Amino acid sequence: MISRPDFKVSVCVALALAMGAGVLSAPARAQTTTPAPAEQPVGEASPRLLQEAAAAYADYQSEVSLIRDKPISGADQLDKALTVFGAQNPAQLSAGWIAYAAMIAAQDPDFIAAVRDIDSFYGRDRVMSGMRNDLGYARTLKGGERALQTALTVNARDTDRIATAAAYVKEQAIKLQSVTWGKSRLKDAGGVATRLKTSATLLRPIAEAAKKLFSGPDLHLVLADASSNGQGSVWDRVSLIAASAPAAALNALTPSEPSSMRIDPRREGTANRIMTLAAFHILEADRTHTDEVRAAMSDKPTFDCIDWSQLQLQACVSAAYTRADLSFCLAEHAIGDAGACFSGVAR
After folding, report:
1. By C-alpha distance, which of 300, 244, 290 is closest to 269?
2. 276-301 average pLDDT score
3. Distant-in-sequence, close-in-space partners of 226: CB < 8 Å, separation ≥ 6
4. SS3 track for the chain
5. What values do phi and psi take at 51, rounded to 5?
6. Which end of the chain is more exposed for a tag (fewer CB within 10 A), N or C?
């Protein structure tokens, strides 16, 4: 329980309004210690729903690392990169991104305490019903706005590296215009575009390393590191987690300074959805209320943005004359436009 009486009353009233019911008379359970972030118990057989979804985003970021670190050296490598980035399943990738953002937000101790407090006061079913009916409610809890700003700060670091990868590939596209295989004419550009379109309808297999990361006991260290004031994105360091002493791979953690990013009015719903999912993660609701959690992971603006970037990509590929043109399509649409779908939440 949050110890301040005025906060307790405001929480009760707000949630009651969200549920369309009066304030319950049951007493709240006292919160005497700072709660630990929600994390995967050691030795659990399978990851939780949000962790499983977020592994798809981790896999995507690992591909970003690969393509921004090494130049594209041949036609086969270009074709593979085009498939990796241009045939992402929009539903899978958008759900993975928002799940990861929610897990970052779910590290805030004040927000954790507030969520657990209303859960103990009202009971799980009523809390789930209230948050389902009002996606903006979780964000109003103590620590909610700060938790959202932390998630957006982490996201800004992640999207910066995606933009860097897109710029790097675009530079290569210019150079490929003077390379023999880059100047070679495409025989079936329309067929390539059709294959990308078809592949994007399928769920992508997730690399074992990403699945292991999000189901292992060191996940909380990764999330804490992502939320810290360390330079750059956690995905620049996360490959080191495979070492025998994972904790040593991460920087010393310091709390992230609150940012003041402005939410794009068109993406307020996305921001609210992140915080609702964060509350669900804290409550481990994906063990008991799977349908509600799956529904909350489905963010239409992010899905539509990724889907549109793929339509732009397919049009670009259909009009490509050389493989150098293909590499430009890869940079501009498959990487650049898709990455902007994640950066468009805040300004």
Report:
1. 300
2. 94
3. 104, 154, 233, 234
4. CCCCHHHHHHHHHHHHHHHCCCCCCCCCCCCCCCCCCCCCCCCCCCCCHHHHHHHHHHHHHHHHHHHHHCCCCCHHHHHHHHHHHHCCCHHHHHHHHHHHHHHHHCCCHHHHHHHHHHHHHHCHHHHHHHHHHCCCCHHHCCCHHHHHHHHHHHHHHHHHHHHHHHHHHHHHHHHHCCCHHHHCECCCHHHHHHHHHHHCCCCCCCCHHHHHHHHCCCHHHHHHHHCCCCCCCHHHCHHHHHCCCHHHHCCCCCCCCCCCCCECHHHHHHHHHHHHHHHHHHCCHHHCCHHHHHHHHCCHHHHHHHHHHHHHHHHHHHCCCEHHHHHHHHHHHHHHHHHHHHHCCEC
5. -65, -40
6. C
Residue 68 and residue 243 in contact, taking contact as beta carbons nearer than 8 Å: no
Rounded to whole angstroms, how far apart are CA atoms 95 and 305? 13
Give the whole-number percent of the chain exceeding pLDDT 70: 74
Query: pLDDT tens-digit profile of 241-253?
Result: 433 333 333 333 3
Terminal-residue alpha carbon distance, the chain: 34
- Report pLDDT digits (tens) over 78-104: 999 999 999 999 999 999 999 999 999
| Tens of pLDDT, residues 166-194 | 999 999 999 999 999 999 998 899 999 99
Report yes or no on whether pTM surpasses 0.85. no
